[in-house]
Design goal:
Strand content: 15-25%
Distance between the termini: 41 Å
Helix content: 25-40%
Number of domains: 1
Number of strands: 5
Largest sheet: 5 strands, mixed
Strand order of the largest sheet: 1-2-3-4-5
């Protein structure tokens, strides 16, 4: 992806408070910090999320709306349905799924980190390949690692399939 830098320097705004009091708050903090760190990285509005899903489906690639938290798009494209469509056509839009922790004992490579993967995330990652990455973020150490599904499989020491059911 030529127009999207993936190794930008960490830029942390003073107004973002680190909150590791719950998994949900850690994930929210990580999302905010990732958007500060990666250029042209956005949390999609409902309209943008729909436009992203529709544009990928038009390319024959199913994308489930809940299977990604952020998107990163080259700067030359406007954040509109037409701009999103063009960016996807040119391979200049990447989806990111945030996986976060606040544990200080997790090293920079996230060794020993245990996380869940939804079926929707798995299917979208398989369909999009390099255009879908998992953004691992440690809110305590301020470490960000981006990995494709294939890279995760190479690093994995174990995979434990489960089903979660909600009434």
């Amino acid at each position: 992806m030529s127009g999207i830098p993936i190794d930008a320097q960490l830029l942390i705004a003073d107004e973002i408070q680190i909150d590791n009091s719950s998994n949900k708050r850690t994930a929210r903090t990580a999302t905010l910090l990732i958007m500060r760190q990666l250029e042209h990285c956005y949390e999609p509005s409902n309209e943008e999320r729909s436009a992203i899903c529709i544009a990928f489906v038009r390319k024959g690639k199913p994308v489930y709306g809940k299977a990604f938290d952020l998107f990163q798009m080259a700067a030359q494209y406007p954040r509109s349905a037409a701009g999103i469509e063009m960016a996807i056509q040119h391979g200049e839009l990447r989806l990111l799924e945030v996986k976060s922790t606040g544990r200080a004992k997790i090293d920079e490579e996230f060794s020993g980190y245990f996380f869940s993967l939804s079926t929707a995330e798995l299917l979208v990652a398989q369909a999009l390949g390099d255009l879908y990455q998992f953004a691992f973020y440690n809110t305590t150490t301020k470490t960000l690692k981006l990995h494709t599904l294939n890279e995760i499989y190479k690093k994995a020491k174990g995979v434990y399939p489960t089903w979660s059911i909600r009434f």
